[in-house]
From TrEMBL:
Lineage: Bacteria, Pseudomonadati, Pseudomonadota, Alphaproteobacteria, Sphingomonadales
Signal peptide: 1-23
Keyword Signal: yes
Record key words, sorted: Lyase, Signal
Protein name: Dihydrodipicolinate synthase
Amino acid sequence: MRITRRSALAGAAALMAASTLRAQHPAGGRIAPKADSPQRVWAKANLRGLMNLFLPTFREDGRTLDEDAIRHDVRHAIAQGFSGTLPMINWTLPGDPRWGEFHRILIDEAGDGLPVHGIIASGKVESDLRLLGALEELGTQLVLLASTFPAESSADQLHDLMAQRITATQLPVMLYAATGRRAFPALGPAGQPLDVYDRIADLDNVVAVKISQPVSLTSTMQLCQRLGDRLSMGPVNLDFLPLLARHFDISWSGQWNAEAVQTPAQPIGNRWLAASAAGDMAQVDALARQIQPALSHFFAMQAPVIRAGGHPWQHNRYYQWLSGGNGGLLPHDPHAPAGAIPVLDASARAAMRAAYRASGLEPTDAPEEQFVVGRAAWARGVRASDLTALPYYSQD
């Protein structure tokens, strides 16, 4: 018998919802984090609903930031009701003058309407500490700890490397439970260093955990069980939400292509997470059925690319444009493995539109060429023929 992803999830859900959890938690009770520090008070107020990954936009030369387009996308994120945004820095790394420019434009336009997050992601303590200082100076409100650590680290070594970064700032810090090069197979099941996270979770400014999409249901449950009494848990894989919401206070999911599952006119992702936060399981189940076509299509498109070490950048950008974002092709990602990023072709675009409509979302009716150049450039009179290349994109 062939085991499908749907049947595997159903079997895992049944297993995890069985007697073990019933014994640990009384009926109607859910594990929820305590707001026992200023940073966790901030997290309780601000980590709600969906948060997106903010992609930069460049002008026709593929290098100069398009300020009008970036400001458009900030306003669009606010219209979506997102509760935070994380600038994606693959094309504007720290040390590049455009790194600061990108953040300043975004933070200026966001004002009080959208918390801007930062990310530290190097393998060197000194580099990350300098970056933390720069993020504090710019005015970011939360930091994602996505640093890379030696794979052979012991539990004590990993704890100390993480703590050196976390204790160097008063900003709220979000941990990143991930796979691949950010997993530690010797330190916990499926590479999740549960004991290390358990110790780190006691630091006052550690407020949350972003659980990456490829992390399994079993590992996600283990993380929530171990850390959910102190930290706000945010699974990227919302297929797990109907199960998780019955046992844990799950109120947010973020720093991913959240435009794939909602529009400003139909914010079903935000409504779904609000129902989860309120413990309204009838509404959680109803919205799960509505969002499933869009969510399943996104998962099937995104997860294999994540596992290959990249992101489907033009597909992500197309989702943003479908819901009213700027659009515009992203340049080649110099950090992605060769062949990891798929080409956005006509059949992929049609399938994304169909998944939108199946979930009751209405995509833009603007011409496809507007997506290629972006709304801001289109308004300036730029057309596809003015571009020197169409990376990861096919008209056919």
